[in-house]
Amino acid sequence: MHPPLTLHRHPMCAEIIEEFQKCHLDHPIGKFFGDCTELKIKLDRCFRQEKAVKRKANFEQSKKLKERLESLRKETAEAEAKF
């Protein structure tokens, strides 16, 4: 199962999505018997790569947020210690 095949949400895989959808239109019955399987495998690989890129970006963003929160906690602790 794959996510919805919308081109604006998957810019990295847009070309493969178009080929896959065209294959399904060209082979309405054959798609059930493996005519579009190669494209499906390429599409799955592309989605995995896309997800890895998003995961890495999210990790970097969360790392920056954690560092920022930690510095705020230190500043707050120092401010409280002065009183």
From TrEMBL:
The keyword Coiled coil applies. It is found in: Mitochondrion. Keywords: Coiled coil, Disulfide bond, Mitochondrion. GO terms for cellular component: mitochondrion. Its main location: mitochondrion. Residues 55-82 form a coiled coil. It holds the Pfam family Cmc1. InterPro entries: Cyt_c_biogenesis_Cmc1-like. It comes from the Eukaryota. PANTHER family: COX ASSEMBLY MITOCHONDRIAL PROTEIN, COX ASSEMBLY MITOCHONDRIAL PROTEIN 2 HOMOLOG. Belongs to the CMC family. This is COX assembly mitochondrial protein. The lineage of its organism: Eukaryota, Viridiplantae, Streptophyta, Embryophyta, Tracheophyta.
